[in-house]
């Protein structure tokens, strides 16, 4: 009779205290060898602290016990020892160096191959990298290419292969938001790689805010809330609504606003036959106080539509009117001057300046207001920012804190505050709830409903069909750059949106 296979990870009584405040309280966690185990919770629930304790970056409070593959780890160990114990991590920022090759990145922090001469060593490095990539079913990635030349999906696979280099059977891999920047087709390839890893006997902790991914990939889920373990359940026994309630502590319906008031009939924005690189001869009208959703498959042109209406991409045809006055959108400054604001999809690249403070980011559009006779009125600006942070629940309430140190949800709320407290006519949002936890999403959606009550027309571009159905007054579905159809308030269902998005020919 064969001996039982030890768990990839067993944690008992893990607590962590910072300055007298308990971030984790007596957490137990078991991850079986050969399974994907999702770790879920809102921002601030303790997920990151737990992962940092596992990686050796933080030392748990005395009394914790951590076993990896049946081996009890010492009470204290550093990040440099985590790999030797069979712990591997792929963080959201990947930690790759774009100016090094794939092979060189994979061997960072590892003992490089030895050989006679520089060329022999490079051949050995490339051969080792190729074996790892082939094991993940990605022999198409050239180990000699610079990482900066690869797609985001390929870079994620490289980080995954590096994490697994030298790992032994039955050890643990931690994936923290690995699909945050991936298209759906790339997500599927990553899932295939993760399933291949579990088939080899590795345990996987999968951290994500995307619950559909969790339900598709994970077998078990553990939820943390306020530093405590809520429970562990199999994914099969939980509905999506039940999983959400487990995470936030209230039913799914409570996450969405109660319903926006009936929109006005006055048109605010009218687009007539506008075209871009993918958008073709598209016409639409937004009314005061109306929230209009935009849905469609990847590549349908919905993000381009937002850029065209904000002047971030030049129109190749058609016209845009604001309250019956034609506006020439040659640059975002033209749109801002006409009363149009936009929250972009790529928050880090286009929404915030990560190495600037929260206050500087939130007042970026009105810097002149705080300058008097060559001096910055910092106290006045700080008062304004604190009031906005209170209104939009941006935490912590520290205007001088670097915005890059905030969680994704709090960064997004700061971006919304920057745009939404202005005198607006139209607000365009491209994937505004992407990469934020469920609690932050509820706050963001509630803010959108409030801005609509001011008479602002809202264009809500999203892949989150549930958000579209619950929030929007009507939904425009795009296919191949054209309007495939419109879903009215009375017919808003996931099935109807999918039918229009997947139809092969656009209905005129």
Topology record:
Blueprint lengths: L8 E10 L2 E11 L4 E5 L6 H9 L9 E4 L2 E2 L6 H4 L4 E4 L11 H5 L11 H18 L16 H13 L7 E5 L7 H16 L3 E5 L3 H7 L2 E6 L2 E7 L5 H9 L18 E9 L6 E6 L3 E5 L6 H9 L6 E6 L2 E3 L4 H6 L2 E4 L3 H5 L6 H5 L8 E2 L2 E2 L1 H14 L16 H13 L5 E5 L7 H16 L3 E5 L3 H7 L2 E6 L2 E6 L6 H9 L6
Parallel strand pairs: 3-8, 3-9, 6-7, 7-8, 13-20, 13-21, 16-19, 19-20
Antiparallel strand pairs: 1-2, 1-4, 4-5, 9-10, 11-12, 11-14, 14-15, 17-18, 21-22
Structure write-up:
This protein has 508 residues and is of the alpha/beta class. The chain has four domains: 1-86 and 169-249, Rossmann fold; 96-166, no CATH class; 256-339 and 423-508, Rossmann fold; 355-421, no CATH class. 32% of the residues lie in helices and 23% in strands. It is built from 17 helices and 22 strands. The protein has helices spanning 47-55, 79-82, 102-106, 118-135, 152-164, 184-199, 211-217, 240-248, 302-310, 332-337, 347-351, 358-362, 378-391, 408-420, 438-453, 465-471, 494-502, and strands at 9-18, 21-31, 36-40, 65-68, 71-72, 87-90, 172-176, 203-207, 220-225, 228-234, 267-275, 282-287, 291-295, 317-322, 325-327, 340-343, 371-372, 375-376, 426-430, 457-461, 474-479, 482-487. The strands form five sheets. The protein has a six-stranded mixed β-sheet, sandwiched between helices. Helix 14 packs parallel to helix 15 (438-453). The longest helix has 18 residues, at 118-135. It is globular. The termini are far apart. The model is unreliable at 504-508 (pLDDT under 50).
